[in-house]
Each structure stands twice: as structure tokens, then as C-alpha cells.
Write a structure and sequence with these properties.
This protein is mainly alpha-helical and 118 residues long. The chain has five helices and no strands. Helix 3 packs across helix 4. The model has no long low-confidence stretch (mean pLDDT 89).
Length: 118
């Protein structure tokens, strides 16, 4: 299913909002985050892929063994670039990412996770 084309400003704002609300991030957007979001728009990276990557990375960070050392807070959207690239190549249904979103909601009921970009 194709996504509607968004103006650059709208796309950038949606990416930054999703990043800001991703568990494990500082919730702060910096200039380089804004620039990276604009580059993702320029590359034509679907908003859905960015949102799914943020959720997948957040789940991986949250669902680590209890004995694992704690991870530092994510301070840059660039942290998620490898996962965005991974999601672009995955052949997984949208239902999988909805499952991951629900799993995070159960772990962090008061958190705001990146919404599905439907």
C-alpha cells in the first residue's frame, strides 16, 4: 500500500514527533535530527518505515535480558538509521509492527510510542 506524499515540512514534523516519543530517547530534537529527517524525506523513505524502525529499535532496547547492563539514552535520530535501513529491506507484514507496538504498550502503559503511520 502506497503512502500519500507529504510536504517536506509535514514529513519532518511527523518523523521528529515520532522520534521524540520513542521510549529510550531524550525527547529532545536537535538541529541535526531535523536535517536527517529532511534527508529521509528527500530519499523518499516512507514515513511508515521510519515509524516501524523506531518501534522495532525501542522494542529491542526494552526486551533485553534483565542481567544485561543498562543502555544509555538515545540522543540522536541518527541512532536509528541502521534500523531504518533494515526495515526498508524487511519483508514483514504491518501486523508484525502492530504486535510490537502492543507489546511495548504492555511494558510501558504510560508511554507514548510512535503511532502507526497509516
Amino acid at each position: 500500500m502506497d503512502e500519500p506524499l507529504l510536504r517536506r515540512e509535514e514529513y519532518v514534523q511527523k518523523v521528529l514527533d515520532a522520534y521524540r516519543h520513542t521510549p529510550g530517547t531524550t525527547g529532545t530534537v536537535r538541529r541535526h535530527d531535523r536535517r536527517l529527517a529532511a534527508q529521509l524525506h528527500q530519499r523518499g523513505v516512507p514515513l511508515r518505515a521510519v515509524g516501524n524502525a523506531l518501534v522495532l529499535a525501542a522494542a529491542r532496547r526494552l526486551l533485553r535480558p534483565a542481567s544485561a547492563p543498562p543502555l544509555a539514552t538515545v540522543r540522536s535520530l541518527a541512532y536509528f538509521l541502521p534500523v531504518i535501513e533494515e526495515v526498508l529491506e524487511l519483508k514483514v507484514s504491518e501486523g508484525y509492527f502492530q504486535h510490537v507496538r502492543r507489546r511495548i504498550q504492555r511494558l510501558l502503559p504510560d508511554s507514548s510510542i510512535p503511532p502507526s503511520s497509516r
